[in-house]
Amino acid sequence: MIVILLTMPGTAKAQQDDRKFRIAKIQVYPQYLDEYKTALAEHAKAAVLLEPGVLALQAVYDKANPQNVTVFEVYASEKAYEIHLKTKHFLKYKNGTLKMVKSLELVEVAPIGIEIKKRLLKE
Q1: Which string of DSSP letters, residue by residue, matches 22-37?
Q2: 18-109 domain in CATH 3.40.309.10?
């Protein structure tokens, strides 16, 4: 699946943007890193494929400190986010990774420019 989000110049003022943007900063215990990355990738794929209100879940880790994971989340609205928190795949991810997560910081952010080049992805 390909997700494209664009912020067009001048449109932010002209129309209400109900999207919810968040960054999750996660520290994972080193002994669980591979297992955590697998669980997070599975969750992100399911959320984007199955939930119309999940516009993007993009997860990366710091190459120098792999236990530091950052997830950029975009939801269609606050309601879409609330629905996401109740889904089977989110609950599986959350409950399955509790012991793996050393710390979690959720940061509410606002877009300046969100540009993603469309490209073909192998499924």
Answers
A1: EEEEEEE-GGGHHHHH
A2: no
Phi, psi at residue 13, to the nearest 5°? Answer: -75, -35
Residue 107 has pLDDT above 80, yes or no: yes
The residue extents of the domains of the chain are: 18-109
What contacts 103, CB < 8 A, 6 or more positions away? 25, 26, 27
DSSP 66: T
The yes-or-no verdict on residue 9 having pLDDT over 80 is no
Q: Cβ-count burial of 27 within 10 angstroms (0-12 exposed, 13-18 middle, 19+ buried)?
A: middle
* pLDDT for residue 103 is more than 70: yes
Q: What share of the chain is helix, strand, coil (3-state, %, to 5)?
A: 35, 30, 35
What angle in degrees, to the nearest 10, is found between the helix axes of 88-97 and 33-50? 170
**φ and ψ at 61, to 5 degrees?**
-130, 155
Predicted TM-score of the model (pTM):
0.81
pLDDT tens figures, 58-67: 999 999 999 9
